[in-house]
Amino acid sequence: MRYNLILIFALLAIISCGSEEDKELSKSFDSLKTEIESSVITDTSGSGNNSQENFDKLLSEFGKRYNISAGWNQLNKNNRTGLKKELTGKFIIIPVTKSQVSGILKNGFSDTSIVFTGSSSNSFVFEIDGKISDIEKIGSDKNGLLLLKINKISDSVKLYLAKKGKDFRFSELRVTEFKITSDLIDASGLTLSDSILLKKFGLSQF
After folding, report:
1. pTM of this prediction?
2. Beta carbons within 8 Å of 44's beta carbon, 6+ residues apart
3. Does 148 reside within a domain?
4. Please, are residues 191 and 33 in contact by the beta-carbon 8 Å criterion?
5. Which of 31, 55, 57, 120 is 20 to 30 Å from 191 by CA-CA measure?
6. pLDDT at 16 over 80
7. What percent of the chain has a predicted confidence (pLDDT) above 70?
8. Residue 138 covered by a domain
9. Are strands 143-163 and 114-117 parallel, antiparallel or unpaired?
10. Total count of domains within the chain
11. What does the pLDDT look like over 175-194, one tens digit per residue?
12. Which structural domain range is residue 116 located in?
């Protein structure tokens, strides 16, 4: 009986510690938004080079300071075993576009809410457990960032139909699809264009 009580208290301590870690990281994530917005990162120059550099620097410094894993968008068929082990249980930051935000606000979270394709015949599907109120903080007219904690990563080979141009023709795209199941810790809106945001992560919206 005494052993069981000790075990229960130990588990409660671990859960409490994890919750406090999430809260502290969430506060820090708010400060990241403030830093980005105060730097006036907007894509008004046409090229967006200065915006890209500032954004890269702030995101990199934040990642190092709070041990945010940055390699999730590098997952592909060649490195999936090692990276899946490395990333599971870790915090990551992902982009979210206006259209994705709008879809979540209208229909909630699903496995089609946030889907990206990468540059190595890979794609990323996010299954997110979170509150719509966190997404509302972004605003329906802004792109943003999501702070997630990964619970599980699975992969399979899929055949995507990619639209070609503005007509109704499609091309087949064979990819290694990574389904990333995660908890939403926090969300933040940004005054960045889609091009800058997705370029930073080496992604295309599917």
Report:
1. 0.80
2. none
3. yes
4. no
5. 120
6. no
7. 76
8. yes
9. unpaired
10. 1
11. 999 999 999 999 988 877 88
12. 21-205
Residues 108-118 pLDDT 10s = 999 999 999 99
Confidence of residue 166 (pLDDT cuts 50, 70, 90): low
> Would you say residue 6 lies in a domain?
no
Distances in whole angstroms, Cα of residue 49 to Cα of each of 45, 46, 61, 87, 89:
8, 9, 18, 30, 34
Mean pLDDT value of segment 72-95: 94
